[in-house]
Design a protein that fits this description.
The complex is a heterodimer of chains A (112) and B (117).
Chain A: E1 3-6, E2 11-14, E3 19-21, E4 23-26, E5 31-38, E6 44-50, E7 56-59, E8 62-65, E9 75-77, E10 86-94, E11 101-102, E12 106-111
Parallel strand pairs in A: 2-12
Antiparallel strand pairs in A: 1-4, 3-9, 5-6, 5-10, 7-8, 8-9, 10-11, 10-12
Chain B: E1 4-6, E2 10-13, E3 19-25, E4 31-38, E5 42-49, E6 56-57, E7 64-70, E8 73-78, E9 87-94, E10 107-108, E11 112-116
The chains are: A mainly beta (112), B mainly beta (117).
Chain lengths: 112, 117
């Protein structure tokens, strides 16, 4: 079956540090890949997406590249801010399946 | 502003009680989902519905049931609440067919944090 594995958290960084959150997936077909963010007390919001191999999703300074050869979709940001503190979820969905499969989530805390 | 609304933000129930969690969407979406969120486990799908009165089990349906009598409303029912059902419950909706090139149009509610004592 389909699955998503994220790096263990929590992750704590200083402001302006470089961020990487690793995500790898297992899928039988050709999934679309997503990163969702959950700020404290809120539901999930889509952060970025990629629908085919070598696509790069980007939003709010975050980027992730769909790597089919390594089945990965790592999230990166060059300079994090305190406001980026949240829980980040990697997810996949196979075309037509309509369901999202989530990783376990990574809690990120940015200290000033 | 389109949205998914969950009726309660926080809920405390006693063991053995029948619990109803309500979710309403105003986007005329066909699909609706109930997920459970637990630390270290991410989001796990409990049930989903792709049409009125239609439902399918997700990955962890045991101890839960659902009801979808109207397109905009999807209810999660805990028949007899137990302490291991203490969790954050998230509702989501999406259109069908999935929106091309998008996030499949998923919209999430803010969640209901349920505590069973």
């Amino acid at each position: 079956g389909n699955s998503v594995t994220q790096m263990e958290g929590p992750v704590t960084l200083s402001e302006e540090a470089f961020l990487t959150i690793n995500c790898t997936y297992t899928a039988t077909g050709y999934p679309s890949l997503f990163w969702y963010v959950q700020y404290p007390g809120e539901g999930l919001q889509l952060l970025l997406k990629a629908t085919k191999a070598d696509d790069k999703g980007s939003n709010k300074g975050f980027e992730a590249t769909y790597r089919k050869e390594t089945t990965s979709f790592h999230l990166e940001k060059g300079s994090v801010q305190v406001s980026d503190s949240a829980v980040y979820f990697c997810a996949l969905s196979e075309w037509g399946a309509q369901k999202l499969v989530f990783g376990q989530g990574t809690r990120l805390t940015i200290n000033p | 502003d389109v949205k998914v609304t969950q009726s309660s933000r926080y809920l405390v129930k006693r063991t053995g009680e029948k619990v109803f969690l309500e979710c309403v969407q105003d986007m005329d979406h066909e699909n609706m989902f109930w997920y459970r969120q637990d630390p270290g486990l991410g989001l796990r799908l409990i049930y989903f519905s792709y049409d009125v009165k239609m439902k399918e089990k997700g990955d962890i349906p045991e101890g839960y049931s659902v009801s979808r009598e109207k397109k905009e409303r999807f209810s999660l029912i805990l028949e007899s609440a137990s302490t291991n059902q203490t969790s954050m419950y998230l509702c989501a909706s999406s259109p069908y067919p999935p929106l091309q090139g998008s996030n499949y149009g998923y919209t999430f509610g803010s969640g209901t944090r349920l505590t069973v004592v």
